[in-house]
Amino acid sequence: MPIQVPKLSPDGSNWVVYHDRFIWAMQTNTFTNHAVADAPTTAYIAVGDVSRLTPNACWAKEENTIKLVLSSTLPDTAFNRIKTTANVCDAWEILKWVYEEQSKALVADIIQKFRNKCCDEDESIRSHFEYLANLHEQLVAIGKAVTDEDYTDTLLALLPASYNSAVSSISTSVCLGSKVLTAEIFEQFIIDKSKRRQVKNNCAKVQDEALTADSGNGKGKDQRRDKHKVKCYNCHKTSHYKSECWAKGGSKEGQGPQQGKAAKEDAAPAEEEKEETEAWAVMEEIPTPAEASGPGAADAAATTAG
To answer: How many CA atoms lie within 13 A of 77 on its CB side?
Structure first.
């Protein structure tokens, strides 16, 4: 059967997973013996012949098999480091020394991303949780285990402010109940909350679009006609609400057309008086017919002609 082992990443980010899976896959070749010894041990030789092969021949065959699988799963940079080694034991020690040190350097960077990736208000909660889950798996892969309690606390701390009430409700329920809050339960609760919000927002949007369409189709007139049945709780008249009421106590008190009309009526006498005054002034300047044809008219005409 072909042996399937994941390839080691050039940066060693999956070293822990690669290490464990390689050992698991090489069990039939007694890899644990070859990883710690460069020659058959006493216990190995005591087993005797296997499949008509002497212990030394069986050891050599297993060495070749392990080297073949190892070389096929390593990046070029890693293979160049071990290609001159004489046995599996030396090659494995070199790989452990190189990639375990690189793994330690990766831990700080991944932890910083894991602790500081806050979810934005307009970001998908599901995508946010998937991103954190990926970082969590990377930490596990490099040997930095994160407890479920610590993981749950991180999820709580990185949610947007709009979920504060939901988080408070969860905390209260956990305190009052006997069920332990796990990361899985918390994620499912928040995702459900996010779905309900999305459905509510979509329904509101559809209603707004429907009202806009109805107004364009003439149904808005029907809605305005239905408004005549509404009764104001302030003045007890119909066709408007208290927020539109012009009477005393209403939200638009003193803003009605009657108040405006009264102001105009108050200003009307002054305007009429002004107009009458101007009219009298004009009339005084225009001479009467008698004055125009009297004795002084000729003198005035002569003076004008001169």
So the answer is: 7
Residue bearing tokens 């399937």: 4
DSSP 3-state helix, strand, coil percentages of the chain (rounded to 5)? 70, 0, 30
Report how far Cα 242 is from the mean position of its chain's Cα atoms: 40
Q: What is the pTM of this model?
A: 0.43
The helix/strand/coil state of 238 is strand
- Cross-strand partners of 50: 53
How many whole angstroms separate alpha carbon 39 and alpha carbon 37? 6
From CA 214, how far away is CA 222, in angstroms rounded? 10
Instruction: With CA atoms as reference, report the closest residue to 66 among 14, 22, 18, 127.
Output: 22
For residue 198, the SS3 value is helix
Is residue 106 within 8 A of residue 143, CB to CB? The reply is no
CB neighbours of residue 16 within 10 Å: 19
Instruction: Specify the pLDDT at position 289.
Output: 47
User: At how many degrees (to 10) do helices 15-25 and 88-116 cross?
Assistant: 140
pLDDT one-digit tens code per residue, 114-134: 888 888 888 888 888 888 888
Measuring CA to CA, which residue among 134, 21, 3 is closest to residue 65? 3
Question: Number of H helices and number of E strands within the chain?
Answer: 14, 0
Identify any residues that bridge with 231 across adjacent strands, giving them in sequence order.
238
Per-residue tokens: 184:
């899985």
Q: Tokens in use for 111?
A: 């932890």
